[in-house]
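ugh ok fine here u go
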Amino acid sequence: MLSNKRCCFTAETHLATLWTQTSGRRPSLRACAGVMAGILCYATFILIVGTADAQERPTTKATVHELLGRLDAPTLSERSQAERQILDLGPQVLQQLPIPELIESVSARESIRRIRLQLERRTARESSRAARVTLEGDFSLEQLLQQIQMQTGNRLTLHKSAAAVQRQNRKVVWNQVSFWEALDQLCEWEQVRWRFAEEDAAIIVELPEAESTRPSGLQRSGPFRLAIDTVERRPVVGEQGQQLIRVRGQLSIEPRLRPLFLAMAAADVVATADTDRLLAAWNPDARYEHPAGDGGRQIPVQWDYSLREPLSVSELSLQGRIHCQIAASTERIVFDRTSMVKGTVRRRGGVSVRLKDVEFDSTPPAGVNAEIDIAVTYDSGGPAFESHRTWIFHNAVYLETREGVRTSFTSFETTQQSDGAVGVTYYWTALADPRDQYRFVYEAPTLIINVPVDIDLRKIPVPKETD
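structure:
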């Protein structure tokens, strides 16, 4: 069979010859036959190659496997090219990368670590952007919530109080609308409100218990929603002519994200009164860190400003930046039956988990008791980690059967705390036999990223002075 280039050349040659030889004249039967032969040859080749490509085109899994094999190629150029090609495939290949510790080749092992780290960082950066919704048509409230949840990955629950109200379908036209904008619009349309669940990382949509008040200032920035609840103005005791303006609000983070803490410097958020007068921060050198906890996705914020003259202030504007530390790229670190032994280490991105001790003890008829002692180490330590390491104790930890049935630990005990590392012993009681059906799973965010929150709030009403 002729090659692709040969067929193209044959058809093109016949066509060119026909045009050149017969320009202005009727082409001969022989010339026409030659052209038809070339066209048929080319068409036949395209049909055969197209069919072969459909059958033999490598899947992504096969492509990754082939590129991983080339990470141990004899030349640096081949290894570098394979590494770049894997990176070009994007974060979706993360699940197909092997565990670095199981790779014998030093060069391949280091390449996989670099690839994983870069792809995890890319995933983390992408996840810190606002989730968006595109939707058009007529939908019920429940259908709208389902669509928002499906497209954004944010869990939404319709409370039975709101579900019981009969409503007409609503026509929606959303084109890349941010999650917070879509949720706020939905609540305004249907006269419902949203709140964070007390324990789960989810939002509950329900009927308001009383008439809800609008925030005096509202801004949506990326995955964040900043709402100003109150602005207070009061005199300063013992300081004649000086007043304090206190701004309080809530910073909400999309439920799909896991915030660790919020860092704010008082001098980084500038207040302007009535568009032209700068207000001095009450304590310009102050720095604050607010832990987010585990279940909550809402953090209180507060700014204090000094008004040193008895001036009339009716509006306030805030501009500046604060920072939210987010745990991203959570991965399952799995120890199966063969690797669930003392001394085994698993590493993902910038975190490693080491089994310090593993014990299973049968106590008939109560069942099996388990005790697993681990050390978790993060590459990124430092003061921020030291201040707020409690989030580590909220990582998902469980035993899992071959069928995927999970059993959470009964209790835990902290055995070590140091910069960037903790030691924890987890306990399980009354597990079902046999003991060898379980594997130990530790879910850990592999990256801690700093996400800036740009603040630009205008025309926040300021009440009159209060006593």
